[in-house]
């Protein structure tokens, strides 16, 4: 699959048509994670922000969850690394005359 087809497929997944009959100015079905765009007087689309998918941008994408988990794991590893470094430094300092 070439890059252009991937981009088009991604955009098709993001642009979900909602037919609620209400305008975006009076009713925002997309919530805080999407932007409502009027296509006509009858229908509108939700353009989801990064990491959000669904008809109303109310579901977190799997890539967003993976990035959050990765960030938490990196933070834990940094805490362990610096904790061990401080422990070793204090132990060496205590053993020196």
UniProtKB/TrEMBL annotation:
Leader sequence residues: 1-21
Alphabetized UniProt keyword annotations: Disulfide bond, EGF-like domain, Membrane, Signal, Transmembrane, Transmembrane helix
Top-level division of the source organism's lineage: Eukaryota
Disulfide bonds: 48-57
Transmembrane segments: 65-90
PROSITE patterns: EGF_1, EGF_3
Ranges of residues in domain EGF-like: 20-58
The keyword Transcription regulation is assigned to this record: no
Name of the featured protein: EGF-like domain-containing protein
Organism: Adineta steineri
Lineage of the species this protein comes from: Eukaryota, Metazoa, Spiralia, Gnathifera, Rotifera
């Amino acid at each position: 699959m070439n890059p252009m087809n991937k981009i088009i497929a991604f955009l098709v997944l993001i642009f979900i048509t909602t037919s609620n009959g209400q305008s975006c100015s009076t009713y925002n079905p997309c919530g805080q994670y999407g932007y409502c765009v009027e296509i006509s007087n009858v229908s509108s689309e939700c353009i989801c922000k990064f990491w959000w998918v669904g008809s109303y941008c109310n579901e977190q994408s799997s890539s967003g969850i993976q990035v959050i988990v990765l960030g938490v794991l990196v933070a834990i590893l940094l805490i362990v690394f610096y904790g061990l470094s401080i422990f070793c430094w204090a132990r060496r300092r205590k053993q020196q005359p």
